[in-house]
């Protein structure tokens, strides 16, 4: 069973990101402050849930949270500062957008660039341990999925509505056959293990 938060002395926000391993689109991040004692049946790491479960949980989280915010870094920023730094920047932007200032941050993962004047703790697999990080993981994932589904309308050949920009074999093939879209990350490589093709331009 997931715990509500990491510590109870300070007002705490859980933070997570979605889209680090994608070939296209932005990386999204969310920050969530939950009420003390908050519990939501089924709330867990977004990767443990299916699309329908995440979509059911999202409006409840957004309604019940003391504060929540979602932000992103686009593909061009990712190419400029690399995906790790872009993930940190997206989290910073989400924290900055919170209408209630947290006093402590818990970050999913093992690295983070400190946010000014707010102490933090990095927790490996934290989205499967604490509800506020799990909630952030769901918001980051669902908001990003929605963004990629909207892009799919204008770029249907890459099937982003289904793969959300992740490097599936079909997505890799589409890039090598059609070329890059304006939303692809140009510093990422594409390899199709079935065709044994490699593109150094992606």
UniProtKB/TrEMBL annotation:
Tell me the keywords, alphabetical order: Cytoplasm, Endonuclease, Hydrolase, Manganese, Metal-binding, Nuclease
Family per similarity comment: Belongs to the RNase HII family.
Could you say which residues bind a divalent metal cation here? Answer: 16-17, 108
- Where it mainly occurs, coarsely classed, is cytoplasm
A molecular-function term among this protein's GO annotations: RNA binding
- Per the entry, which co-factors are needed? Mn(2+); Mg(2+)
Answer yes or no on keyword Zinc. Answer: no
Residue ranges of every copy of the RNase H type-2 domain listed in the record? 10-200
Tell me what this protein is called: Ribonuclease HII
Membrane-spanning residues: none
InterPro entries cross-referenced by the UniProt entry:
RNase_HII (IPR022898), RNase_HII/HIII (IPR001352), RNase_HII/HIII_dom (IPR024567), RNaseH-like_sf (IPR012337), RNaseH_sf (IPR036397)
Does the keyword field hold Cell membrane? Answer: no
Q: Superkingdom of this entry's organism?
A: Bacteria
Q: What class of enzyme is it?
A: hydrolase
* GO BP annotations, alphabetical order: DNA replication, removal of RNA primer; mismatch repair
Q: Which Gene3D superfamilies match?
A: Ribonuclease H-like superfamily/Ribonuclease H (3.30.420.10)
This molecule's function is given as: Endonuclease that specifically degrades the RNA of RNA-DNA hybrids.
An example Gene Ontology CC term for this record: cytoplasm
**Reactions catalysed, as given in the entry:** Endonucleolytic cleavage to 5'-phosphomonoester
Q: Per the annotation, how and in what number is the cofactor bound?
A: Manganese or magnesium. Binds 1 divalent metal ion per monomer in the absence of substrate. May bind a second metal ion after substrate binding.
EC numbers for this chain: 3.1.26.4
- What single Pfam family name could you report for this chain, choosing any that match? RNase_HII
Report the subcellular localization: Cytoplasm
């Amino acid at each position: 069973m997931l715990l509500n938060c990491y510590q109870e002395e300070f007002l705490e926000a859980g933070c997570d990101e979605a889209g680090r391993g994608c070939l296209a689109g932005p990386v999204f991040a969310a920050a969530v402050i939950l009420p003390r004692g908050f519990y939501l049946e089924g709330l867990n790491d977004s990767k443990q849930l299916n699309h329908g479960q995440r979509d059911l949980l999202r409006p409840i989280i957004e309604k019940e949270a003391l504060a929540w915010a979602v932000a992103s870094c686009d593909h061009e920023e990712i190419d400029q500062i690399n995906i790790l730094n872009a993930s940190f920047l997206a989290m910073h932007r989400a924290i900055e957008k919170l209408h209630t200032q947290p006093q402590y941050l818990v970050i999913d993962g093992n690295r983070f660039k400190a946010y000014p004047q707010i102490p933090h703790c990095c927790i490996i697999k934290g989205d499967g341990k604490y509800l506020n990080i799990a909630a952030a993981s769901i918001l980051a994932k669902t908001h990003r999925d929605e963004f990629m589904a909207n892009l799919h309308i204008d770029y249907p050949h890459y099937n982003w509505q289904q793969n959300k920009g992740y490097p599936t074999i079909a997505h890799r093939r589409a890039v090598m056959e059609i070329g890059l879209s304006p939303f692809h990350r140009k510093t990422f490589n594409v390899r199709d293990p079935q065709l044994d093709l490699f593109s150094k331009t992606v």
